[in-house]
Sequence to fold (355 residues):
Amino acid sequence: MILAIDIGNTTVALGGIRDGRVCFVAHMDTVRTRTAAEYRAEMEKVFAHRRHPEKPIRFEGAVLTSVVPQITGALAECARYYTGKKPVIVSPDIRTGLTMGVPDPHAVGKDRLVDAAYAAANFPLPVVTVDLGTATTFNVVDEDKVFRGGVICPGLSTGLRALGERCAQLPQVHLSSPKSAIGVDTEKCMLSGSVLGAAVLLDGITQRIEEELGRPVTLVVTGGLAKYVIPLCRHPLTYDPELLLKGLALLYQLNAPQHEHRHEPRNEGEHRRPSPRPAGRRPHSGSPTAAAAPAVMAAAAAVPAGTMRPRRAKTEKEKPYDEIRHSRCRHDRPGVPALAHRAGKPLQGRGPLQH
Fold:
């Protein structure tokens, strides 16, 4: 499973992805003052609710995108803690499958890059992606997979909150889809202007993009606030709430080192698998061991299964040491007379030998 981390302005999304399929999604608040240890404690709470006692969550790698540079390092450290590997961090310098057709690719939001890369790889071109979040962003990829740029607007919740904070007589409004364009009270007027206005903006901007490209586009919409807007849109579209997480999985596949092996996470209560013992050196082709190997294997194969192999016959040089070797098996007395006999000297003294 791949750990995908999307650091947004409002929330941090955590996703578990296996074989291109999103297995789970969880969210944490984006707090710019939190440390890596504090974020790791929050992640432990998230994983604890999804961890099966007999099937612990295992991550073989991680990929991360961020629009909040202050906490990118802290969450990259968390990703390394759970995988034992450096995460793939999204930037224009990694492989995306796109050609950047803008003057400053590094100024493009990393989340926009992820959306565009996945849409270009999985939808008919040219394609426009729209992410309705804290900000509403449009990304344009032409028929040659060139990232042409896009549009950035205030998000739904951002606009409504600004109205409530800046206008003394306007209340804070909870988001919902308006039933008509004409509002009959202040709250409905604000919803019509914000939500219906976002739908008209989406249709209108897409139409203008098609005019500039000179051909129809595939429209793909995502983001947490899209559910309020897409029922009011008139342009044909595809809604994919997991577009960004799927894009992160795609970029991981394109950029993760292929030689790395699956790694056990360092969650509480889990242990790493012991690493296999390195194999010993093979004998040199000219050594006696290598030369005798075929004969040894042939002799072993000749012994019938279930029978004991006969001991190797001793040489004449080894036979005189049989009695002496018994001294290691608590039978040293028969060995001492044998030594004295071969030396031609009688034993001195009587009685049992003293040790």
Residues 259-275, 283-290, 323-333 have pLDDT under 50 and may be disordered.
